[in-house]
Amino acid sequence: MMHLLIITSLLSGFTYPLICAIYFKTLIRRRNEIDGLFQGTIMNKHIRVYGGLSPKDVFSLFHNWKDYVLPIALNMIVVSFVSLALMSQGSDYINNYIKSNAPLLSIFTRLPLPASAGFVGAYIFSHYEMIGRFSTMDLTSTILYRLWLRLLIGGTLGYLVSFTIQPPLQLLTAFGIGVIPFDKLRDLIERMALKPLNIGPKGAVSDQPTLHKLQGLTEDVINRLQDEGITTTQHLAFANPVLLLLKTNFQWTVILDMINQAILYIFIGDKIEDQRTIGIRSATDITKIKCLLTDENGNKLKTGEKLGELMATKLGQDSIGVYNLIETINDNPQVRFICDLWEETCKRGRSEN
Question: Which among 98, 116, 246, 255 has a CA at the least distance from the CA of 177?
Answer without folding.
Answer: 116
